[in-house]
Amino acid sequence: xxxxxxxxxxxxxxxxxxxxxxxxxxxxxxxxxxxxxxxxxxxxxxxxxxxxxxxxxxxxxxxxxxxxxxxxxxxxxxxxxxxxxxxxxxxxxxxxxxxxxxxxxxxxxxxxxxxxxxxxxxxxxxxxxx
Length: 130
Prior knowledge:
Elements: H1 2-25, H2 27-35, H3 55-61, H4 63-86, H5 95-129
Helix pairs in contact: 1-2, 4-5
């Protein structure tokens, strides 16, 4: 079930990124989806490769958000399993670890929310000025 949810969510994200790439690369990108499968990697490198990988590309495509939310999901699964096994949290030898994981997850979620709010407000401000 989780794999199906990931496929649905990531499919939407891939479509957004393809639209961005289409706008950025134009005609050169139209050949790419025809030659490269969306879900499974190719053994043979794409022949018409242009551009290079960069951290700026990761930031622009918001892939850091994927890493953030995967971490949060892993913490949720870890805490759930700890709760199922021990029937308590924040007690005993793992209490500091539990607090750090949960605190870091809350901080990451809050950071994502704040950054999205800033982006949303900047977008609205730009639209109001146009």
